[in-house]
Amino acid sequence: MTTKTNVLLLYPELADEVGVNEAIILSQLHYWIEKNKENHVNFRDGRTWVFQTYKEWNEQFTFWCEKTIKRIFLRLERQGYIISANYNKIGYDKTKWYTINYDELPFDLRTASSAKQTDVPDGGGQKVPADGDYVTQPIQENNNRINKREYAPPLVSDDKEDERVGYGEYGWVRLTEDEIISLIIDYGEEATNRAITYIDTLAQQTGNRNGWHDWLLTCKRAIHENWGGIMNGLR
């Protein structure tokens, strides 16, 4: 007796360039984009889009938790490989629509995919109502912004610090890509960037008199303790 097994397509050349997890997401997203093109749905502003909740994505990527899926999508978005938008008809529906920025990819996914993609899991399928758009449930999304110089942030040189980037107008808040993504996933982009702006500005004004060095922990404390009213209006 045989049972049908769902298969995910992975291009080794793409994985070499962007990472295995990212390549899996991109390949599946590309699959759905091509499906939507065939069905003539979800075409907006010159691009074909895919939208599903992270719970629905999790039905396709059952080997990851939702938080991991969010992290990979966010990383791809920050790297410029995918683009997100919101074309939902209901204002409170914050489900993200995604498409691939093919011009930025270091691998020609469209040409490679013509070598037959089969048995890709459909996650239960996207439902097509009368108006041709796929139905999903709302998921939260936030917006962002960051913020000015006199003291100079300290230069650091150990290997771990080499992965960190200075955030904020003055560059005091040093975080790795994974750390900034984890903050966005846990607290949203607006709260994260408000915290970075507040901490960076205060460090600049005082020459980091508080002696902050674990910037991830400092950002989490700032949000949890609502320093400077970071969370006002966001809850």
Question: What report would you give on this structure?
Answer:
By secondary structure, the protein is mainly alpha-helical. Helices cover 39% and strands 9% of the residues. It has helices at residues 12-18, 20-39, 54-60, 66-78, 109-113, 177-187, 189-206, 215-224, and strands at residues 43-44, 47-48, 50-51, 82-85, 97-100, 165-167, 173-175. The strands form three sheets. Strands 3-5-4 form a three-stranded antiparallel beta sheet. A two-stranded antiparallel sheet has the order 1-2. Strand 1 (43-44) and strand 2 form a beta hairpin. Helix 1 (12-18) packs across helix 2 and helix 7 packs across helix 8 (215-224). The longest helix has 20 residues, at 20-39. The N and C termini lie far apart (53 Å).
